[in-house]
């Protein structure tokens, strides 16, 4: 009878684990609809990060390139967003359950979601750095002639060693993703409880908590995103290390934090939309399956 009970419990945990992956993928897939809508915004930010230009100049560049090229590079973020949600939410839930079972006295329970998020973020960086690399090469208009198709980019990256090809800028991506997901999962619950205390319904509370959390994270980690975009946008040529790239960037931004954060408001807008929707849908699915 005890064995039957254990088997039943194990099956129930397996289902819960699979549901977390499924719900993460579903919520992220649905949030790709606004990702499609705001992709031109994202591309404008990317051009600002690469060319240190104003919004007006970046929009002018995209307008001149035409509507066909406007959505060049949209496939990797759509694919990445769905797979990313599946892995991030599912893996965080799995790690959270494992750490809850093994570290009942060592680590405070309130810190476990953030710790599991940190681990999930590291795995996410390993899996998705190649996607981000391809996306950034595609979005850089300077590569259009030399690397006109997705296939030509893949062939070129494959010909280089991993650290310069698919895994260029892995260290800043790992730092950004691990810190970002740690903060997201650590802050999401308390933020949701605080918002719910103001009398908002559960879905609205989840949306607002996801929005506020992502806003704080985007602002804090924005310099790392700028560094990654600049390191990954080009293929070949002189390949500097992380610190050398950062020093060069900092000098090109005239050692000004205001210039470094040029375009950050658009990133906040995009994060608010996508992470607000993702959080609301995921929390609702988890609640109904629980």
From TrEMBL:
Keywords, sorted A to Z: Membrane, Mitochondrion, Mitochondrion inner membrane, Repeat, Transmembrane, Transmembrane helix, Transport
Pfam family, one: Mito_carr
Domain of life: Eukaryota
Record's bilayer topology term: Multi-pass membrane protein
Keyword Methyltransferase: no
Record bears the keyword Zinc-finger: no
Primary location class: mitochondrion
InterPro entries, per database record: MCP_dom_sf (IPR023395), MCP_transmembrane (IPR018108), Mito_NAD+_Carrier (IPR052465)
Location of this chain's protein in the cell: Mitochondrion inner membrane
Regions that span the bilayer: 21-42
Any one GO molecular function term: NAD transmembrane transporter activity
GO CC terms, sorted: mitochondrial inner membrane
UniProt repeat feature Solcar, residue ranges: 19-98, 108-194, 201-288
Protein family (similarity comment): Belongs to the mitochondrial carrier (TC 2.A.29) family.
Official protein name in the record: Solute carrier family 25 member 53
Source organism of the structure: Echeneis naucrates (Live sharksucker)
